[in-house]
Write a sequence for this structure.
């Protein structure tokens, strides 16, 4: 089953061609236009998606040696995300599907992040605990199966990636600065900089990062070393994420742990996740760094999963972009 998947929910334009769950070709273009503005400018993001998307599609089809007529299903992220950005990929995908007389599937971006782990050789054993940690979301889920993904709790304010980005920007590391702060932290000493751990109770499956960000700002204004602050910030965030995730693993009797979202590219988070899961005999599913951040392969795999359950599945062409997700379960994975 050849699937052409598109992801345009924020500032990455991504296209993937899949055969079922296997990637044939994929491209991601990370928009650089936002860095000089210190944050994503929605209108510029939409314009950039419009300019880049057709080029990426051309490249992916060429790399895969196929034409539009060979695509059996078109899939695109429907939300959550920036409405203008989402509409570019969604409208393109719906229009091409309609013109080609092929089905279209609208996909939930948060579910897609978890579905990067779907259909692989190593299978997820349920129940599983999932950590979704990105620039826009920080949530814990209980997964009873691929169809039953239940929200345990989310951040009450900033997402972890957002806190990384804001702290990086504050300390002159540019935007988006999560990866730069991660790098700076490698040469710092966390013990030189004491930061609070908000909502630290591991049994509480919720997070709060805005106070931590403010504490980092106060320390920065007192003149602390940038690398030390970065190291302390990274350590604090990673400890909060892992302690709550591991508590939930124990509580639900998890056999597997799924991690997904841009912050799972963080080197310390990856190291501690591996160590903790090994100690507790938990099967860890961690994307490679390029599939931690936004990509279209995850959208294609979510579509492949829907089609495996129902080969006739398709979203209505009335499937619209949605900016927010406020459900308690990540089902359905497809367009509501
Ligand atoms: O999943 P993603 O690409 O987009 C959203 O769905 O939000 O995540 C992007 C986020 C940004 O906040 C970025 O700074 C963060 O992931 N990020 C990192 C690292 N690499 C990317 N945060 C910490 N350490 C990293 N190495
Ligand atoms: Zn994302």
């Amino acid at each position: 089953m050849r699937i052409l998947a598109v992801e345009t929910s924020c500032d990455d334009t991504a296209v993937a061609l899949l055969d079922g769950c296997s990637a044939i070709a994929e491209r991601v273009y990370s928009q650089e236009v936002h860095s000089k503005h210190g944050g994503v400018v929605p209108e510029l993001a939409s314009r950039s998606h419009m300019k880049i998307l057709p080029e990426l599609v051309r490249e992916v089809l060429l790399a895969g040696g196929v034409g539009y007529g060979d695509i059996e299903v078109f899939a695109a992220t429907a939300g959550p995300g920036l409405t203008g950005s989402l509409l570019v990929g969604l409208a393109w995908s719906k229009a091409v599907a309609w013109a080609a007389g092929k089905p279209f599937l609208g996909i939930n971006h948060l579910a897609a992040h978890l579905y990067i782990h779907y259909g692989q050789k190593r299978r997820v054993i349920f129940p599983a605990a999932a950590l979704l940690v990105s620039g826009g979301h920080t949530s814990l889920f209980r997964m009873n199966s691929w169809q039953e993904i239940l929200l345990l709790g989310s951040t009450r304010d900033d997402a972890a990636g957002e806190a990384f980005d804001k702290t990086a920007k504050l300390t002159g590391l540019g935007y988006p600065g999560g990866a730069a702060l991660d790098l700076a932290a490698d040469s710092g000493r966390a013990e030189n900089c004491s930061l609070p751990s908000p909502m630290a109770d591991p049994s509480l499956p919720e997070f709060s990062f805005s106070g931590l960000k403010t504490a980092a700002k106060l320390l920065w204004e007192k003149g602390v070393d940038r690398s030390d602050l970065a190291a302390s910030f990274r350590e604090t965030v990673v400890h909060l994420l892992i302690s709550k995730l591991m508590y939930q693993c124990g509580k639900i009797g998890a056999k597997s742990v799924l991690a997904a979202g841009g912050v799972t590219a963080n080197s310390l988070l990856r190291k501690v996740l591996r160590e903790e899961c090994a100690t507790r005999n938990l099967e860890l599913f961690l994307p490679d760094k390029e599939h931690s951040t936004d990509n279209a392969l995850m959208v294609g795999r979510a579509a492949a999963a829907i089609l495996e359950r129902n080969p006739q599945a398709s979203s209505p062409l009335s499937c619209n972009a949605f900016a927010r997700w406020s459900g308690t379960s990540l089902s359905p994975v497809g367009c509501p």
Notes: Strands lie at 2-7, 12-19, 22-30, 73-79, 104-108, 128-133, 138-143, 149-154, 256-260, 283-285. The mean pLDDT is 96. The chain is about 40% helix and 20% strand.
